[in-house]
Amino acid sequence: MALSDIARRTGIPAPTARRYAALFKDYFSGRRLGRMTRYPESAIPVFQRISELYGHGRITAEIEELLRLEFPRTIEMGPADEHPALPAAPPDIAAIFQGNFTEILSDALSEALSASMNRFSEALDTLAEQKTSLDAHRTDITKLKNGFVLLARNLKQLASRDQADTVALIARMQERIRLMEPKLAVMEEISLTLTSDNADLKARLSAQEVELHRLRDDRERLEAALKRLSGLSS
Hints:
The chain is 77% helix and 3% strand. It is mainly α. It has a domain at 1-76: Orthogonal Bundle (Multidrug-efflux Transporter Regulator, Chain: A, Domain 2). A two-stranded antiparallel sheet has the order 1-2. α2 packs antiparallel against α6. It is elongated, with a radius of gyration of 51 Å.
């Protein structure tokens, strides 16, 4: 499987899985195919275990010790320990030089050089990714530190300012209440007077309504009497 397949199967981000593969490559049994590295199915539990240990706050050295106890290691020989397989020397040296010995040796050296360059390129890619990740973490940490410093400073200023504003606001409110007390007394007296006058007006209005009803009744009686008189005279 490719690293992208492992990332999809385990839920680990691909850059993180690539970093795990570089840090703990002895536990994955990866096989190089061209510029791609393929991993067996047995590598999935190792990736999951590493992710779990990092999630529990373990550091790389501690994870290395735990993996050594839980999983087998695969030691991959580096370029310094590898020697390209050269063709066996035939007994007839003259025939060798007359044949394709130079071509075979050139092909073997080219293959060894190509393998070394591939490993070197892979190592450079891994280092570049780790450096990019490390720089990003450092930038995030710096931003967090600056943010906490600014937050603490703003909270301190806000607390002191709020306390001073609260004291000043209470003082202004007390002064306004003191100045408004005479006005409130006058308004209360006017309100009582208006309430009393309103009661008198209501009583007078009720009396006027009774008088109006009486006058209407008298008018109706007079109109009825006039009609009766008009009928008698005709």
